[in-house]
Amino acid sequence: MVDNFPVLNWKNDEYYSQHPSRKQVRDACLQRVDWTALCEYASSLNAGKPCRFLDQSTIGGVHLIRILSFGDTQWIARVQLEPSTPTTESLLRAEIDTKELIRARTDIPVPKVYGYKLHDANSIRAAFILMEFLPGSSAMDADGGYEVHHGSILPERRSFFYKQVASIQVQLASIRLPKIGTVIKRDNNSVDIGPIPGLGRPFSTATEFFKAWAKHAKFPLSDRDIREFTKNGPTEEILSSIHNFPRRLRKLASRISINDIGPFPLYHPDFYHSNIIVDGSFRVLGVIDWEGACTIPWDLVEPPLFLGIVPPAMDDPRNYKENGQPWDEDSIQRLN
Q: Domain Aminoglycoside phosphotransferase spans what residues (predicted)?
């Protein structure tokens, strides 16, 4: 059993020195969790086999990730960094139920879930999921990592990889449910729709969803940050657009969707190549990080995020040549 997995994107000391607040959160989580109790719980789910945690850990979103080893096999323990709340509990529950639905209705590879706790009121003192370890690396980290290819899929890999990704997206959209919201599995194994954290009730129509979005919409950056980032650009125009977005969205809510009523497709909110695990030949082993997955209006379905592009009219003019063509070759391919 080798304790070092070079294909995994572990956060190193340099990362934590640059992000001291993240180090503080990580260290607090490492101290709060009863790792011995978690190991004992995992053993109880795996025929009593003894296990141990490897020394490495990393941060992914709002979770701390560690590898649990049974000697011949490994599991992933994904533990919530912060103490649980009703919102995080509902997100975790929806993620687990979404994975089960995907496994039942498609061939999309997603990690098996072996066990979980939704809140901190347990002997482990944390909410967590124990799941299958996929022995590969993210598509973003493969082939030498970001320092080599800056997050792009190498040209010789694209055809094979993109075909798999297209199949995953088609299958995902084939899961259609009558309302917009999060997936809930009932005790009788039926599938229901629950509220979206931050937006509220499951929505029967796209119009209802867009009105709720308009009501709760909040841009993630402050006006001060935007002024700092757009010193040489149309700052006031950008700020005006941001401030008027909720009002305009509310006004147009009933006219946005081409299909106002369901069924609505299932959606991965972070379908990025950092969440697609591949082997050395770029065969997809699994899609991870389903937190926040929900059904959405058809109008919000989009290509994988690593194939997206900022429309030229909204982009920085410095990214384009005098003839209007992007400097970046990948952008040219996406536009064409």
A: 87-297
Q: Where do the domains of the chain lie, and which CATH numbers do they carry?
A: 13-138 (3.30.200.20), 146-335 (3.90.1200)
| pLDDT above 80 for 119 | yes
| Residues 214-235, mean pLDDT to the nearest whole number | 86
Residue 292 to residue 75: CA distance in whole angstroms: 22
List the single range of 48-62, 85-99, 229-243 with lowest mean pLDDT.
229-243
Cα–Cα distance for residue pair 273/153, rounded to 1 Å = 9
Instruction: Provide the residue type at 127 as one letter.
Output: A
Q: Judge contact between 112 and 75, C-beta under 8 A.
A: no
pLDDT surpassing 80 at residue 237: yes
pLDDT, mean of residues 295-309: 88
Q: Is the peptide bond before 83 cis (omega within 30 degrees of 0)?
A: no
Residue 237 makes CB contacts below 8 A (sequence gap 6+) with: none
Helix (H) or strand (E) holding 28: helix 20-32
**pTM (2 decimals)?**
0.87
